[in-house]
Amino acid sequence: xxxxxxxxxxxxxxxxxxxxxxxxxxxxxxxxxxxxxxxxxxxxxxxxxxxxxxxxxxxxxxxxxxxxxxxxxxxxxxxxxxxxxxxxxxxxxxxxxxxxxxxxxxxxxxxxxxxxxxxxxxxxxxxxxxxxxxxxxxxxxxxxxxxxxxxxxxxxxxxxxxxxxxxxxxxxxxxxxxxxxxxxxxxxxxxxxxxxxxxxxxxxxxxxxxxxxxxxxxxxxxxxxxxxxxxxxxxxxxxxxxxxxxxxxxxxxxxxxxxxxxxxxxxxxxxxxxxxxxxxxxxxxxxxxxxxxxxxxxxxxxxx
Length: 304
Known about the structure:
This protein has 304 residues and is mostly helical.
């Protein structure tokens, strides 16, 4: 099987577009490009600019035999739609053959979240005796206190901090800017990390300054900390304490939102803090709260 040169160039350009202009996360951009690469490999020598709807439908029939999850199929369809929308925008095609693609219905599942006690258990088991350990504690304190995405946290620069006002500016999906609030406890850990631990983290490498565009969180070579490192920190702690849950940075975000709703926070306020474009994305946390009430009821009521 071959790889059409036009399709390959279109994929390269598409990758630059979703990273630079659409501000896709590294994880999402990698997944979308992998999906499109598989598609153009399937097309063989045929150019992706010369297909019609029936050809794309044939491809979707082809991948059914791999028994992908519905969520994976939905992402592959989203990748195709985004790819062809880009080609149409760039006037490389006259009509968009993927415009009428429909997603399979996703199975409804509530986001996983941690109880406050579980969060404290994780935080208290992070070793803070080393500079990098103290950095890790500050990071997880921030995730828990703010509900920010891990990509937003890793992307923080000093110019984004306004700790006198307990505020941090973040840039979410689509480079949308918002202000999030920081608890006094998380602010203390962050300030101590900046003043005492940050400069000690690089081992034999230059320490980046604290100018407006310098990264807040750095690794042992002095460069911006990557999201993968943060995921590994959480995995290590969860494994050490034998917590029977799969915990990711996004679980901290779900936990933040869930506990706000449970304690009476207005849904619109939670939407603003999370940076959700639509209130429907935030409403799922009301379902989590209701389910939590049912669980407590069933576990404690003598006639339940």
